[in-house]
C-alpha cells in the first residue's frame, strides 16, 4: 500500500476543507411569521451538516457563505430551503426568512364573551389585577415569587437568590425586552403598513422590515409607540426615517 500517496491525499483534503470553511462567516438573521412562537426552529447548513436553533423572537446566528443551502424546519412550520446569496453574507441588515405556519383544521368552536362579568363585578377583588405577559410572569416568579421562602422574621425567596447568582434574572429581563419589541413590531405593522412607509417616509421596499427593527431599537420611540402616544410616535418616526435613510446610503 502506498502510504505516502494516502498521506498526501489526506493533507490535500484537510487543507481543501479548511480553505472552504475559511470563506464562511457568521451571519445573524430572524424568522418572520404570523405565528408568535419562533423559538427552537431548526436551521441546518446542508453543505457543512451543522445545525443551530432560533432564540426567543426567532433570532439566529449561523456560519455560512454564498451558495450554501440552509434548511429551516419545525413541527409548526412548513420546511423551507434557502440558498445563501452574496447580499445575505455582506449586508449589515438581518437575514430575514419567512416561514409559513402549518394549518390544522378544527371543528367549529363558539366562544361567548361576557365582558361585564369579572372578579371586580363579582366582589372578589376591589380593583382589576395587573395583567402580566408571559415574560413578565417568568421574571416575577424568578424574583418575587412565593416558592422556596426562607427566614425567621422575614421571608427571602431562594429562587431570587439563585437566579441572581446564576444570571437567570438578567436573562429574564432580556426576554421582556424582546417580547416588548415583538409587540411593537406587530403594532407597527397594524398602524403603519408597508405602503405608508414606502410612500410617506420614502423607505425602499427591500428595507421595510429592517426599518421596523431600527425603530423599535430606539427606546424613546418604543416608549411612545407602546404607550399609544400617536403624536410622539408620528414625530419620532419621521425623524428616525431620515436617520435610517442616511445609514443605508451606498
Automatic annotation (TrEMBL):
Keywords: Carboxypeptidase, Hydrolase, Protease, Signal. It comes from the Bacteria. Residues 1-20 form the signal peptide. GO terms for molecular function: carboxypeptidase activity. It holds the Pfam family CarbopepD_reg_2. This is Carboxypeptidase-like protein. It comes from Flavobacterium croceum DSM 17960. The lineage of its organism: Bacteria, Pseudomonadati, Bacteroidota, Flavobacteriia, Flavobacteriales.
Amino acid at each position: 500500500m502506498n502510504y505516502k500517496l494516502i498521506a498526501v491525499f489526506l493533507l490535500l483534503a484537510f487543507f481543501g476543507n479548511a480553505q472552504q470553511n475559511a470563506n464562511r462567516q457568521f451571519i445573524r438573521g430572524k424568522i418572520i411569521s404570523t405565528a408568535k412562537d419562533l423559538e427552537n426552529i431548526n436551521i441546518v447548513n446542508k453543505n457543512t451538516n451543522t445545525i443551530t436553533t432560533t432564540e426567543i423572537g426567532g433570532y439566529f446566528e449561523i456560519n455560512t457563505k454564498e451558495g450554501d443551502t440552509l434548511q429551516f424546519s419545525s413541527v409548526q412550520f412548513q420546511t423551507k430551503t434557502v440558498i445563501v446569496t452574496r447580499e445575505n453574507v455582506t449586508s449589515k441588515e438581518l437575514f430575514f426568512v419567512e416561514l409559513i405556519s402549518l394549518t390544522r383544521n378544527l371543528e367549529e368552536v363558539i366562544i361567548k364573551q361576557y365582558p361585564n362579568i369579572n372578579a371586580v363585578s363579582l366582589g372578589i377583588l376591589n380593583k382589576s389585577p395587573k395583567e402580566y405577559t408571559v415574560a413578565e410572569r417568568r421574571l416575577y416568579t424568578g424574583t418575587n415569587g412565593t416558592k422556596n421562602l426562607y427566614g425567621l422574621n422575614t421571608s427571602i425567596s431562594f429562587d431570587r437568590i439563585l437566579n441572581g447568582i446564576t444570571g437567570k434574572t438578567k436573562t429574564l429581563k432580556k426576554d421582556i425586552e424582546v417580547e416588548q419589541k415583538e409587540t411593537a413590531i406587530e403594532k407597527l405593522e397594524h398602524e403603519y403598513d408597508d405602503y405608508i412607509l414606502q410612500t410617506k417616509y420614502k423607505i425602499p421596499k427591500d428595507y421595510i422590515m429592517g426599518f421596523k427593527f431600527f425603530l423599535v431599537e430606539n427606546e424613546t420611540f418604543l416608549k411612545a409607540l407602546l404607550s399609544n402616544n400617536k403624536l410622539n410616535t408620528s414625530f419620532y418616526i419621521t425623524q428616525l426615517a431620515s436617520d435610517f435613510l442616511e445609514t443605508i446610503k451606498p
